[in-house]
Amino acid sequence: MIFNQRNSNLAAGNLKMLEMTAKNWAFIFLILLVAVFSFTGKNFFSLVNFQNIIHLSAIFLLLAAAETFVIITGGIDLSVGFVMGLSSVLSAVIMQKMHATGTIPPSISILTGSTIALVVCIIPGLINGFLIAHFNVPPFIATLGMYGIANGITLKMCKGFPIAFLPAQLVEIGNGYLFYFFQGLGFRFFSKPAGIEAHQLKDMLRIVPNSFIFLFLVCFILRHLLRNTKFGQHTYAIGSNMDASVRAGINTKKHIIKIYVLASFLAGLAGIVNVFQTGIGNYTPFGAMYELFAIAAVIIGGASLMGGKGSIFGSIIGVLILAVLDNGLLISGVSAFYRFIAVGLILILAIIIDQLFPDLF
Fold first, then answer.
1. Is 26 within the bounds of a domain?
2. Which of 14, 257, 312, 332 minimizes the number of CB atoms within 10 Å of its CB?
């Protein structure tokens, strides 16, 4: 009797351990990736490289956050990548024209271009949400149509070329750091110590990219919105059971419109970040597949395409997995083409784990 009880306790412990591993598999996999690439890639395990990974992941993280809200409701948004391109080009065109006058301060040009682009980028989400909520257009079709419309408008504005000659302050802010340190000159906040020559820049220690601070604030707000507000509760409810949400008195149509507006706004924000980081307005190439990688990151992070599951933290882990994978393969000398194979395999693994342990996430 005691022997059987011990076996039962052991089996229960093993099952609990298996469930915990399955629940946190993405985080465990991220740690394993970091460990492997630390041995195979020169200078992979360094502060500079980790800061670069976060900095270059900024737009993907914003797009993944946009997809997180949409996917939790059981929808999908294929237009976020091209809305990002629309925001990038539109803001850059406005900044360029204002800056070219020579009479308008750069700060006013940057603020005006960014604000107008963000306001305009709400429109695609409004249209997507209205079509899905009031005309029952499948999210895949509605957002696929917006995918083409946003890209066409963007290419019309830029004629297929990046928008350049923007205020120099853009890249200074977008690629700046919170702390700068150079031996003998000490620490400085938000600006390089005076007296540094160009050939000395490589020896200067830069800590905490501005993009990290920005992403932390955005993700903190979105996480709070999803976890601790009525808006977040309704989002999960709609994804879990639409009919029950209607019977509970939730205005599901209005809420779905809000979700797609939020997703479009975050995509527009990603476009602004892209301008700050590159100093030019970039249209989205058809082969970039920003939206598909964002969706993959959300699914890897524990969300379900059936709706009702997902989190901002999980999506962050998903983005970091893809970013570390891309960076690690590059530093290790492996062809970037293998990235697509690896992403596909990881995505399949995420779906399998979701099917085997549907109640864990």
1. no
2. 14
Tell me the Cα Rg of the chain. Answer: 23
What lies within 8 Å, CB to CB, of 344 at 6+ separation is: none
Q: What is the pLDDT of residue 354?
A: 75
**DSSP, residue by residue, 37-89:** HHHHSTT-SSHHHHHHHHHHTHHHHHHHHHHHHHHHTT---S-HHHHHHHHHH
Asked if 339 contacts 326 with a C-beta cutoff of 8 angstroms, the reply is yes
Kindly report whether the global pTM for this prediction surpasses the value 0.85: yes
CATH number at residue 260: 1.10.3470
Average pLDDT over residues 169-189: 81
Q: Which residues pair with 179 in a beta bridge?
A: 189, 207
State the CB neighbour count (10 A cutoff) for residue 358.
11
pLDDT at res. 206: 82
User: How confident is the model at residue 191, as a pLDDT?
Assistant: 74
Rounded Cα–Cα distance for residues 253 and 200 (Å): 58
Could you give the number of structural domains in the chain? 1
Q: Are 133 and 256 in contact (CB under 8 A)?
A: yes
Query: What range does the domain containing 297 cover?
Result: 41-180+204-356
C-alpha span between 200 and 193 (Å, rounded): 11
